[in-house]
Amino acid sequence: MTTILEELSGKKLASATVLFLVALAGFFIAGGVGPSPTSSHMLLFRGCALRRGKLKAKQSLENPVDRSNCPHHVDHLTTEVDKSLQGDSIVYYAKLPLDRSHVVMSRWFQWIGSSFHIDLLTPPDKDRSLTVGFSARLWYANSVDVVNRNSDDEKYSWKRFTKSIINFQRDIECSTTSHGCSDAPFFELMSSHHKYYLINMVHGTGLGQNKVGDIWFSVVHWRPAFMRIIFSIKTILTPVLLVAVIWFGKKIFGQGRQSWPIERLIFCLGLSLILLNFPIDWISLWVDAPWLSLWADIRQGLFYCMLTIFWLIFVCEQFYGEDRVTSLKSYRFFLIPIVLTSAAILAYGLIERGSIINNPFFTYWGKTSTSYTLWAFFMLLSCVCFLYVVALVVLIALTFRRIRLQAEMMQKGSVAQLRHQGRAYRLKFLLGATLLTIVLTGVSYVTHSFNEAEWKHIDGEKSVEISGALYTGVYGLWNLYALAVMILYSPGKSKVEDDGHSTGESSLLVKADESHKRKTIPGNDSL
To answer: What mean pLDDT is predicted for residues 349-366?
Structure first.
């Protein structure tokens, strides 16, 4: 049984190549001309000093504290007047968004991350690493009357986002040359369902004689305009991929023959991509669904696993030529490490995000020891990814060399050589698309991983930024590549005869090759 790739004319293949490149350029342009994927803002914690004899600051976290109910406001603690107001006598509070009632948090943000930065009143006597303890609580509201305190109605009061007061610790580096200490992770929200958020915090142990001045914190989230582009792309691509997968499934399972492993892998790759594309994210605009982050990790992990397995088997099959493998067991020594690595990465992501959903202040990056361990893990993962990509690139290069040597071994001008050149040209197109997808996927994955790790580690300026063009471009490339593979690798119109040879173009190639085998060219090996 021949494939459409083997039957496709050169003119049609050239047209398909141009269409592929134009569509790919469109995906890159969609992300490139739009806004950057994320946006960040810097806010200053204000202080509320509690009068002596009143409740301790930690106890006051039982109720929301903001400007409307604070007995003594402390906007900047770096002034001499406020030096006596330290320790558990101050509740720090900040609102999201800023104190402007006409601005609200958008559900298009999808995710909110934050870090904080402490300014000390006086630099420490020596460079040191401090483990600082905090107590905090999050509140939310959906009415501007809560923010402006225009109503005493209970329904217009701040609601508890976290059920209890959360105690957490962060490691920070403080220098003798600066009043400020290093940034540290603060909290993450897996959804941005509410319009307003209030953060109350009290610093506790770990600062010793170092008195706290100002506390700043930065917030980062997805840009609504960029998320609209992503949602639109997913919504458009889902029915296209669904039709293609159904069509391909009928082709390979409805022919009354046993399908090849590579065909079943292509089918599974299409299913995993449909799962990745399916725009279930739209429900986050109406329902508070932080669990969508877990679902995103699952479907993306499944897709990466299927994609890496398909690349390995597809490239190996092309390298070995017509000697098709009838069972995936032949690749088990290569597949087991891929599956185990994917499972380990997925387990880490699910545990981390699941813990954050339960406790927004949870992070593995708050302690120096665990953060460096995770950095080492990301470095190791990047090295494995690099070696995997290099191995596939080498195999593809050797496949190109094999195709060229086969052409040289044939008699010039023979039917076999002409047929081989036509088939080689079409195969090179698919291998070229595979090579492009492998390289860009590797670059995107490593860039995204380091971008996330650097943001969570919060150690100086970022050295890696992910662009909107790369994000949408690689996402579109996955879909175009899967479509191309399903179409070109689907069974063609040629029928399989009783002798096992297919009619049409492929049979001519087989017969020409057999004829050429009987006539060996001096100095060359026969095919």
So the answer is: 87
Q: At what angle do helices 10-32 and 415-457 cross, to 10 degrees?
A: 10
Take residue 270 and report the two structure tokens written for it: 């299409």
330 phi, psi to nearest 5 deg? -65, -20
Q: Using CA atoms, how far apart are residues 393 and 232, in angstroms rounded to an integer? A: 33
- As a whole number of angstroms, the distance between CA 312 and CA 314 comes to 6
Q: What radius of gyration do the chain's Cα atoms show?
A: 30
The tokens describing 51, both together, are: 């009068």
CA distance 34 to 30: 6
Candidates 179, 228, 170, 251; CA nearest to 203 is 170
Type of residue numbered 260: W
Give the residue from 34, 35, 31, 33 showing the smallest Cα distance to 473. Answer: 31
- In tens, the pLDDT along 264-319 reads 889 999 999 999 999 999 999 999 999 998 999 899 989 999 999 998 888 887 77
Q: At which residue do the structure tokens 């929200």 appear?
A: 189
pTM: predicted TM-score of the whole model, two decimal places:
0.81
Q: Residue 495 gets which letter from DSSP? A: P
3-state class (DSSP) for residue 33: coil
**Which residue pairs from 416-421 have beta carbons closer than 8 angstroms and sit at least 24 positions apart in sequence?**
416/509, 416/512, 416/513, 416/515, 416/516, 416/527, 419/505, 419/508, 419/509, 419/512, 420/509
CA distance 310 to 265: 6
**Residue ranges of domains in the chain, CATH in brackets:** 4-37+225-518 (1.20.1070), 42-222 (no CATH)
Is residue 426 within 8 Å of 492, Cβ to Cβ? no
* The pLDDT of residue 198 is above 80: yes
Q: Are 94 and 199 in contact (CB under 8 A)?
A: yes
Q: Is pLDDT above 90 for 162?
A: no
What residues have CB less than 8 Å from 380, skipping those under 6 apart? Answer: none
Helices (H), 128-259: 144-148, 224-253
User: What CA dihedral angle connects 288, 291, 293 and 297, to 10 degrees?
Assistant: -160
What the block records as the tokens of 74 is 């402390």
CA distance 487 to 324: 19
Q: How is residue 292 written in tokens?
A: 């969508």
Of 9, 61, 41, 391, which Cα lies nearest the Cα of 221? 41
**Is the per-residue pLDDT at 210 higher than 80?**
no
